[in-house]
Amino acid sequence: MLTTYFSHDGHLSSQQDGNLRDALWIDLFEPTNDEEQRVEADLHMEVPTRDEMREVESSSALYTDRGATFVTVRAVHRADDTHPPRLASLTLALVGDQFVTIRYATPRAFQQFVGRSQKPTAHFASAASALLCLLETLVDRDADILEEIGDALEPISAEIFAQNAAAMKSIAAADLGAVLKRIGSSGDLASRVRESLHSVARAVPFLEMHLADEADLHLRLKTLGRDVQSLLEHDNFLQTEIQFLLDSNIGLISIQQNAIMKTLSIAAVVFLPPTLIGSIYGMNFEHMPELHWRFGYLWALGVMLCSAAGPLLYFRAKQWL
After folding, report:
1. Comparing 72 with 180, which gets the higher pLDDT?
2. pTM of the entire structure?
3. For residue 139, what is the enclosing H or E element?
4. Which residues have CB under 8 Å from 191's CB, separation 6+?
5. What is the per-residue pLDDT for 172?
6. Residue 214 structural domain
7. Which of 126, 164, 252, 275 sits at 20 to 30 Å (Cα–Cα) from 59?
8. What was the pLDDT predicted at 94?
9. How large is the greatest C-alpha to C-alpha distance in the chain, in angstroms?
């Protein structure tokens, strides 16, 4: 689908069809062959294919061709809450005084940019200004996701390191495997945000070299670069916390498994002597002195109880129970 955005005193208005040469921003979403050919003919540029957009080499993501500047960045995209997050490639091109976007997904950052671009307070002096606004919105969205990850890790940390006895009992009864999945989901999301931020970090110096010498644009690019670096540091902090929580949770799982094995071992030791006594008196030999005892049955039961109580008292004295 091809959508054109026209500038009126710095404000954008969208049209599904219009003269491409007069548009400030041209958005290609899952473009057809006819739409690609139309853009290539009118703007004298070559639209990258979907496979080319997925390449991670800097030479494929950042390049100039026929006077046009191309930048491919990654945006965290989640279709809905039931689908895991993934990275969507967005190719941003500056062709003269026009801004072109090529995409095959609609991440939340792009939706926010579209909403921001059509607000009365929005102002785009040039196509380069619109491109920078999209990159700034993408970084803002990554920052929001990092905040969500931090908020999600707080209750996990509270569950793992709860100090009162009641909380520890609830943790022991809870499924630590589910906690492990929550930690893993946060780690996966943080790694995708990191890749998105790295794609923007690579684009900033490239744009500084190829954008027109406008002080305002270069100042915004420097600010954007500093924001990206600070967010990458915050992402590193979250990754460290995630790894710490992951190790702690695995340690708790090991403790629970050891407690289960300890219980089974104690049960085996406690019931071993009574089982031995019962096995002895269950033998079918003809001459066994105890078989003719009047209180032999009660005697055997008493010996079994004492043999079971002995190990229990010993374990309690050693504070193993």
Report:
1. 72
2. 0.75
3. helix 127-160
4. 239
5. 55
6. 2-257
7. 126
8. 86
9. 114
